[in-house]
Amino acid sequence: MNILKSFAAGLLVVLGLAGAASADPNQLTIKLKDGPVVIQLLPDVAPQHVARIKELARKGAYDNVAFHRVMEGFMAQTGDVQYGNMKKDFQPDRAGMGGSDLPDLPAEFSSISFERGVVGMARAQDPNSANSQFFIMFAPGTFLDGQYTVVGKVVSGMENVDKIKRGDMSNNGAVTDPDRMIKVTVGK
Length: 188
Prior knowledge:
Layout: H1 2-15, H2 18-21, E1 27-32, E2 35-41, H3 47-59, E3 65-66, E4 69-71, E5 75-78, E6 118-121, E7 134-137, E8 150-156, H4 158-161, E9 180-181, E10 183-186
Antiparallel strand pairs: 1-2, 1-10, 2-8, 3-9, 4-5, 5-7, 6-7, 6-8
């Protein structure tokens, strides 16, 4: 079977279709208004959190969800499938306070540092309260190291992340008329 897979992969390269046919099950693609963002998920680092993100993405739960908290020089936060989704009753005053209908997850802290492009799980005060929300770092935030679960890293499209509408810094980054994740898919 491995010989057949190798042959097929080689044939795709020769035909120039390798990118179209490769479907990395640990890549998350977020379609933004300015273009796609591809995140390499890290199941070896945070298996439960990565599984949750993939499950919600496959269900379409992240589609049209707002970037409700975006702070210049820090991060863009999204993933509130309860209050931040236009398919449901969008509640801008509550966006960022919800999660999914699934149980919260126990922390999966690692030694990976929160550098530009790193994706982490948002949580409440309790380290074991991550659910569906995540954030993408605009800049290093090493003060988060060992305090939040790292789930992945942007591997392409960071220039599109940089164009996400910023929020009001005096209001903890809350965004009026926020940008959204138009479509979120697993695999390439």
